[in-house]
């Protein structure tokens, strides 16, 4: 008979009580949000679609820069490309624009492959500036195509036969689904072995490659995924906006606002773009009428956060109180049977003793 292996006195736990509660609360909140078109106002749905596009774009930028270590200020290239592909498929091919939204995202991911051959020849600050130049090339290219309106842009006419209420409701539901999918996919990716490999590449590429991690392939995969998400946000945004122009689609403000949200919330954390998007929406809602003062307020808030909260607002809360809605670290939990009788606390609710370890490669 094969001898049975001894039971280890500990187990690896990846969720916390707070993350479980957040999961249940997130499901309830998503179901409640899905019912908004039946009782809410159309202005609420339009606001949600706009901030959802900003959030998805910021989430992809955080994946690229916060986890992959590739700081880009030209991701608006894929945002605008996804929007234009959606418009071309809708206006000229006759495809339903709602079906064209994921196709625009796929096209943005595909175009990122040849673009990466140019961008990956650069590193550091040169990579950031190079991606901005690439975005400007995209903008000038579409500005010289008269079929899509040239520099003045054009209108999405493919939705002309759809009732306004139906159009707004479907756009809202697609935006909600894209937000949930973006959070879930990024979270599952970061909890996987590939997520650990990405963090190792961010910390030290040479050390990661020496451990057998395919650095070039991982960076290309993250770059393509981030481009796909940016294209999805762009296609979704211009379906809701009904009009597109090169200056609006390829504006550097998209990346600037994404960086603002990620820095305010906390770079390198899934919760960062969520917190940053809520703050950005609140500032945009109540202070945008003040014009220049509004932009000065955004800049001042970013400066104060980077000086006093270097890890972002959620990063500060996580370090101070241990909050984590989307934990990616592993926790080593002693089994109840492995704890001596005299070491068991008197409280009947205390069944385990926790020893927390961060999932860093050198600790494993």
Describe the protein in words.
By secondary structure, the protein is mainly alpha-helical. Helices cover 66% and strands 4% of the residues. It has two domains: 1-16 and 327-364, no CATH class; 33-321, ABC transporter involved in vitamin B12 uptake, BtuC. It has helices spanning 17-34, 36-39, 42-67, 76-91, 97-119, 125-143, 164-191, 193-203, 205-210, 215-241, 246-249, 253-265, 271-287, 292-308, 312-321, and strands at 10-13, 154-155, 243-244, 331-334, 353-356. The strands form two sheets. It has a three-stranded antiparallel beta sheet, with no helix packed on it. Helix 4 (76-91) crosses helix 10 (215-241), helix 5 runs antiparallel to helix 10 (215-241) and helix 7 packs antiparallel against helix 10. The chain crosses the membrane at residues 20-39, 51-70, 76-93, 100-120, 170-190, 220-239, 251-270, 290-309. It is found in: Cell membrane. Residues 343-364 are annotated as: Disordered. This is Branched-chain amino acid ABC transporter permease.
List the helices and strands and how they pair.
Blueprint: E1 10-13, H1 17-34, H2 36-39, H3 42-67, H4 76-91, H5 97-119, H6 125-143, E2 154-155, H7 164-191, H8 193-203, H9 205-210, H10 215-241, E3 243-244, H11 246-249, H12 253-265, H13 271-287, H14 292-308, H15 312-321, E4 331-334, E5 353-356
Antiparallel strand pairs: 1-4, 2-3, 4-5
């Amino acid at each position: 008979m094969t001898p049975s292996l001894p039971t280890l006195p500990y187990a690896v736990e990846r969720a916390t009580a707070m993350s479980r509660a957040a999961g249940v609360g997130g499901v309830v909140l998503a179901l409640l949000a899905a019912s908004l078109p039946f009782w809410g106002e159309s202005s609420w749905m339009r606001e949600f679609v706009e901030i959802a596009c900003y959030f998805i774009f910021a989430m992809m930028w955080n994946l690229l820069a916060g986890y992959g270590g590739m700081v880009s200020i030209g991701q608006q290239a894929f945002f605008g490309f996804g929007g234009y592909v959606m418009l071309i498929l809708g206006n000229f091919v006759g495809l339903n624009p709602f079906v064209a939204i994921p196709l625009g995202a796929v096209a943005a991911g595909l175009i990122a492959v040849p673009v990466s051959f140019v961008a990956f020849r650069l590193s550091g600050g040169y990579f950031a500036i190079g991606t901005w130049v690439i975005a400007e090339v995209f903008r000038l290219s579409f500005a010289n195509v008269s079929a899509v309106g040239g520099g003045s842009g054009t209108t999405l006419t493919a939705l002309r036969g759809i009732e306004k209420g139906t159009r707004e409701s479907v756009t809202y539901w697609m935006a909600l689904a894209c937000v949930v999918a973006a959070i879930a996919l990024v979270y599952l990716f970061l909890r996987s072995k590939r997520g650990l490999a990405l963090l190792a590449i961010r910390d030290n590429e040479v050390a990661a490659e020496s451990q057998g991690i395919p650095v070039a392939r991982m960076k290309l995969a993250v770059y393509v995924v981030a481009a796909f998400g940016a294209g999805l946000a762009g296609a979704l945004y211009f379906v809701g906006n009904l009009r597109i122009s090169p200056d609006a689609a390829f504006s550097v403000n998209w990346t600037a606002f994404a960086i603002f949200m990620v820095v305010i919330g906390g770079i390198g954390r899934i919760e960062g773009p969520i917190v940053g998007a809520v703050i950005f929406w609140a500032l945009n809602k109540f202070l945008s009428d003040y014009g220049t003062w509004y932009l000065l307020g955004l800049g001042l808030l970013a400066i104060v956060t980077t000086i006093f909260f270097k890890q972002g607002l959620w990063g500060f809360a996580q370090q101070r109180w241990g909050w984590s809605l989307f934990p990616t670290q592993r926790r080593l939990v002693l089994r109840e049977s492995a704890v001596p009788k005299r070491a068991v606390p008197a409280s009947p609710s205390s069944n385990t003793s926790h020893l927390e370890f961060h999932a860093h490669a050198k600790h494993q």
